[in-house]
Write the structure tokens for this entry.
Amino acid sequence: MWVTRSLAVCSLLVSAVLGSAPTLASSSASPSASPSASSSTQNAQEKRYAILDNDWGAVSFIPILLALKGDMEILGLASNTANTWQRQSALHALANLELSNLTCIPVYPGSTWPLLHTPHRFHTWEALHGVLPWQGAFAPEAQDGNDPTSGDPNRIVREAFIEGFPRGSIDSSTSAASFMVDMVRKYPGQVSIYSAGALTNVALAVRLDENFARNARELVVMGGYVDVNLLQVRGDVELANENSDINLMIDPESAKIALNAPFPEVVIAGNVANQVPSTQDFLDEVHEVRNPLTNLFHDRYGTEFPFWDETAAAIMVDRGVVLNSTTAYIDVDIAYGSPKYGNIHVYQKALMPPGLRNVTYVHRVDGERVKGLMKDAMQDPPSC
């Protein structure tokens, strides 16, 4: 957040599911962009587009604001199943846009189901390898007013919309994956794909069009923790939660497809997403300017978790926030019987197995700069 499947089986699964800144590090093994993407390099420097794919929640507007304040044009939002089911997530996206006066941005429905995983399959794995501290959409069904988990994937819990229930509608004219493919064809070399939830939609887009990844600008991912097992042991359950990779583990097969696709660059914000904590002092500082966004952030964001999605978005918008990164070759464990199912493994080039690609793995960011971008985006938000 694995049983190996052939390309033919992956294609069948896809059919069933479907209804700026310079590069930090490079390698001769990096996949090369197609001629159309290469020819648009100059245009890419002039105009940057983004598609934001996330398991949207009640206070999820900050990555949207960061992208817009960073002079990126957001082509659309996509919803996926990770923390909650896709449909609830899509409605949260709409509600966040309405709160932000950004209803000019469309929301496209992503895949409700991962390629293989189901709640039953997920819990069977847990019975063998231990319970995850956060189970996301596959947590046992509850009637507690929070975002829905398990049970009916199309169930909507209105009480969970503390940001306000949306009045608008999801754009169901196309799927999130098809929308991604269409936009990358329209703007080759210029579209950043931001994924802060499951990678299901990105994997489907990769399988829909063999040139999708090559013609995108980059893939920026929140997730991909490395060497965190001891952190899951030595602290409390919440520390284990912070170091649990639910974004990849809820759909490991999609993560493997997406992270090995030939994007010009894949940027991983894994462990580094835990670096910048939410503190009461910062919540109060942002709230010195009062508006609907700062009010919701101050009252509802809380101090329990770090700025996961916001850190990844800041990296996409402004590579100047990155203080340390490295190039690594990456793979995702898709062996269902493995205790590391859905986790990544990184290699140096000399030791990697065949068929992997290199990624930019971010180790450290300028936390004050990240918070400064967030503060400015909320206190002086963009609008349509």
Summary: The beta strands are 48-54, 72-79, 107-108, 191-195, 218-222, 266-269, 322-332, 344-347, 357-365. The mean pLDDT is 89. The first strand starts at residue 48 and ends at 54. The first helix runs from residue 7 to 17.
